[in-house]
Every structure is written in structure tokens, then in C-alpha cells.
Amino acid sequence: MARSVNMDKPLRFHWSLSQAGDRFRRTRSTLDMPGVLDLSEQVRVCEMAEQCGIESMLMAIGFTRPDPTLLSIAIGKRTRTIKFMIACRSGLISPLYFVQQINTLSALTDGRVSLNVVAGHSPAEISEVLDLPLGTVHSRLARALAELLVAEGAVEAALDWTSKPWDLAPLILIVEEAGGRSTTIGGKRTIYEGSLLSTNGKIHDEVLKLLQ
Hints:
By secondary structure, this protein is α/β, with parallel strands linked by helices. The chain folds into 2 domains: 11-118, Rossmann fold (3-Layer(aba) Sandwich), CATH 3.40.50; 135-212, D-Maltodextrin-Binding Protein, domain 2 (3-Layer(aba) Sandwich). 40% of the residues lie in helices and 14% in strands. The protein contains 7 helices and 7 strands; from the N terminus they run E-H-E-H-E-H-E-H-H-E-H-E-E-H. The strands form 2 sheets. A 4-stranded parallel beta sheet has the order 1-2-3-4, with helices on one face. Strands 5-7-6 form a 3-stranded antiparallel beta sheet, sandwiched between helices. Strand 3, helix 3 (95-108) and strand 4 form a beta-alpha-beta unit. Helix 3 (95-108) runs parallel beside helix 6 (165-177). The protein is elongated and about 60 Å long. The N and C termini lie far apart (43 Å). 25% of the residues are buried.
């Protein structure tokens, strides 16, 4: 049976800024790729994207690239409407610091920011970057991803029993900013009791009752 398609919502287009300013970037070996590209050329591409109705630009992350958040701030102060889709890898930096970065970008660009969580990348590579045991990386990625999936609307609820307060603080903010709700299993809004239940908000009280 053919599925009906909802055409009420307009199509939204996104593009990547990865090679703007260096069209032959992919012809070089990874170690030979420049870390900072031509900022004026990247601004020009974003201005053209605005004229063409592109909604957002993917700001890629990698050790051969500039910091996507800082680059977005620089470009955002020179553009008007283009949004910045920040690529991030869970565990590379402190979650609290990451939220501070995103909030700063949002404030300086009038909210022109969204996130692209890179969840499928190799935990082995992240383990080498962080100098952490592979099992620790798997654990941290899984816990952070669960709350991010709630914020995205991909799942309705996530339960965390083992994270530390500094890991939970930014996750509560992300879920709440997305319209969800995060509390302890006792219903308290605190990060200091060793548990975190995050939901879409609609089923939160019902899930709390099931956990009692």
C-alpha cells in the first residue's frame, strides 16, 4: 500500500561548508590538508546559500579542520539568515563546556544553530584521542546519546543510573530546551542523586509511576 506524503511542510535544504575555499581539498592526503581555510571565501559561499534559500550549512569536525563552533561565530557575524549545523562527537570535550559553546554561538547569531551528533564514528579512534579505555568511551557515548535521542524526538524516554553530576548537567539543559523533561527517578530536578530520567515530557509522570 502506498504511503501518503505530507506536503504541508515546505522542503528545507542544507549544504556542507567542508571544502569552501579549497576545492581540491580531497585530492590531498589527510596530513597535508590545511587546518584553516579562506574565511572570506567561506563567508561568500554562505552568502550565496542565503540567496538560494539554503537553510543551514554543516560545519564539519575533525583534526584537520578549524573548530566548527568558533568558525560559525566568525561567519555568523558576517551573515544574516544562514544557520549553522554544528557537527559534534560525544566525549571529545566536556559536555558542560560544549553547552557553553553552543549557547554562546546561539546568543551571538540570534539562535542560528542546530546540532549534528556524529554517533556512528569509531569509538576506537575517540579512545585514542581521549586516552581512555575503550569500554569507558563506549559507556560515555551510549549514555550521552540516549538523552540526545530524547531531545531529537527519536525515542520517548531514557534512564541513566551511573553518570556523574558534570555529565548530567548539560544533558538536562539539552532535553529541556527541546521541550522535554529531566528529573531523578524521584521526580526531583537535580543532578546530585545519581539518576536521571529524560522523556519527551508528555509521558514523564507515567514513567515515574512505573519506576516507583
